[in-house]
Design brief:
mainly beta, RmlC-like_jellyroll, globular, 13% helix, RmlC_Cupin_sf, five-stranded antiparallel beta sheet, Jelly Rolls, Cupin domain-containing protein, four-stranded antiparallel beta sheet
């Protein structure tokens, strides 16, 4: 059985994102080509956006730290630490309102 401290991993990735030119950092927590489930911890410096992109068939977003806004068409969802969202099946983008870390879970 494998275990990971998401809190510690989020802190590490936030530090990396703060220093990165792109303002973001990410690490796969679980999954890969041999798995149907993939979990990625994404850290974003305040003001950074993940550009608009297509949604996978099934995905959720859990905010681990900070505040984010997910934009999907005319809808906006604001989330903060502890919030969980099922990502709508349409093009969307994610904006860090503060330094933030999220856990993206995707079923492939």
């Amino acid at each position: 059985m494998d275990g990971t401290s998401l809190t510690a991993l989020a802190e590490q990735q936030l530090e990396t994102a703060r220093e990165a030119h792109s303002g973001r950092a990410a690490v796969t927590v679980y999954g890969g080509h041999e798995h149907r489930l993939r979990q990625t911890l994404i850290a974003l410096r305040a003001g950074t956006r993940l550009g608009e992109h297509d949604a996978p068939e099934e995905a959720t977003l859990q905010v681990l730290d900070g505040e984010v806004a997910l934009h999907a068409g005319s809808q906006v969802w604001n989330g903060s630490a502890g919030d969980h969202l099922t990502i709508p099946p349409q093009r969307h983008d994610l904006e860090a309102l503060t330094d933030a870390a999220v856990l993206l879970t995707v079923a492939t």
